[in-house]
Each structure stands twice: as C-alpha cells, then as structure tokens.
Amino acid sequence: MSENEKLLRSSDDTRSEQSNDCEDNDSFQTQRRPKGFLSRNAVTLGLAASNILLLVTLVLTIFFWKPSQIERFVETYSPARESIDFMLKNEHATDHSVQSKYSGYPNDDNNKAWEDLIQPTFFGATEQEIMQAGDTVDDSVKLEDGGYVAALGVYHEVHCLRQLRLFLYSEHYYPNLTHDNILYLQGHLDHCLEALRMSVMCNADLSLYTFRWKAANDDRPYPKSNASRKCVNWDGVESWAMQRKVSLTPMLLRTTGEADRIHL
Ligand SMILES: *[C@@H]1O[C@H](CO)[C@@H](O)[C@H](O)[C@H]1NC(C)=O
Ligand SMILES: *[C@@H]1O[C@H](CO)[C@@H](O)[C@H](O)[C@H]1NC(C)=O
C-alpha cells in the first residue's frame, strides 16, 4: 500500500467511523483519532491546514469586514462629551394626569423651572473646540471676553420647546398679539418644529410602547411603556454647561470690533 493509499484508507476509515457514529447519534465522536502512526500524522497535518485556513480567514475578516454593528457605536466630537455619562431610565410621559415641574398651565414654579433650564444656553467655545467639531472660526461670532459664542444642540432644542410652550399659552405670555406678531411667531415656531423633528428622527427612540384599557367603557386605549432607554445623565450636561456658561444676552463683538449686548 502506497503512502497515499494509506492516507486515503485512513480517511475512509474515519468516514466509516463517522457514519457509524452518526447512527449512534453521537456526532462529537467523529473526531476520534485513527490508531496508526501514519494516520495520526495525517490528522495532525489536516488539523494544521485547517487551523491555518481558519487563521487566514480570521485575519482577512478583521481587515476587510465592515460590520454594521460598528455603526451602533458611532461617536461624534463634542466638547461636552468627555464629562457626560449615560444612564438607563424608564420614565415615559404616557400618563396625562402626571405633571412634571416643567408642565401644566403657567405658574411661578413651572416658569422658574424653564428659566433655570435655559440659564446655561450659551458658552464660550475655544478655537480648538470649534476646529475639532469640524467647523471654522472664520465667520464665528466672538465674545467680548474671549472665545466664540456657542451652544450645545440640546440647548437649541430646549429653547425651541420653551418658545412653543410660550405660544401654547399665548393668552398668558403674549396678550394683545397683532396679526403681524402672530405671523412672525408662526414663522419662528415652524422653524423650531423643524429643529425638533430633525432631532427626534435623528435620535429615534426605539422604546416599545403599547396600549391598555383603563376602564371597560373607554373610548380609546391609553399608551403605556415600561421600556428602559439610554439617556444622558442630564445633571452632567447641566453642570458642564453651568461651568462654561456665558450670559443669555452676552457681550458680542461685531465685525467692526464694536461690543454690544445682544439677545441671541
Ligand atoms: C392688552 O390690551 C389691554 C386692553 O386692550 C390692555 O389693558 C393691556 O394693558 C394690554 N396688555 C399688554 C401687555 O400690552
Ligand atoms: C417595569 O420594569 C422594571 C424593570 O425595568 C420591572 O422591575 C417592573 O416589574 C416592570 N413593571 C411592570 C408593571 O411590568
């Protein structure tokens, strides 16, 4: 019997063992080693070859595979990012009878909550922070005290929510609006809705919401959710913003170099 024939035979032996093993319903034993010295060598070679193949596949995979999972962890630069962490929350505003400190018909408490919330809207960004965010300082507005006037995106959204709230209760906040006032506010608030729509769709909350009946004669069911969702730790955002904040009406430098207190 030539060497090749022996190899062939040994693999035939293995195959017949395999089929027996399959009949025995014990697939783990298909790896059982043949007995002879040469056939053991053949198995060692085979294993080495398949290990090399596995290694090559692995290396190629690591280099060329662009898995979609990686996109789940995309991070973008923000000067605030480093100091802010995430947490799980399962608060959902599904119950209309539950008020937060921000909601409800205008009163001193909810007005103060909104005022406090917007205090750190603006901060002074450094040139380096602006460059790292992929922007340019060429046309950025300078603060009189140094740096460039800036805001985190979330504070633009908070501003928009607040403006919408003021308009929602316009009989309280804007008595005696003229037709022109209303047209102006509608234009501004439509833009605010756009900003919020983009952000909501960008951050697509994927929490599971369902519905429940509260009473047998309800006209329609009520939404509910007990889903956890990933949230930034707002206290972290706020303390970062408070440390960096400038006035809500900061002193800005005009292109002429003149300084002016401006309501942004
Ligand atoms: C709104 O108009 C009423 C009467 O026309 C007037 O008494 C009131 O002072 C006005 N309010 C404001 C904030 O201008
Ligand atoms: C809501 O979720 C929490 C944990 O996420 C769980 O402990 C609790 O039992 C859930 N409540 C209901 C009503 O399912």
TrEMBL record:
GO biological process, one term: mycotoxin biosynthetic process
Ranges of Basic and acidic residues composition bias in the record: 1-18
Species whose genome carries this gene: Clohesyomyces aquaticus
Key words of the record: Membrane, Transmembrane, Transmembrane helix
Pfam family, one: UstYa
PANTHER family membership: TAT PATHWAY SIGNAL SEQUENCE, YALI0B05434P
Protein name in UniProt: Tat pathway signal sequence
Region named Disordered: 1-33
InterPro entries the UniProt entry points to: UstYa-like (IPR021765)
Family: Belongs to the ustYa family.
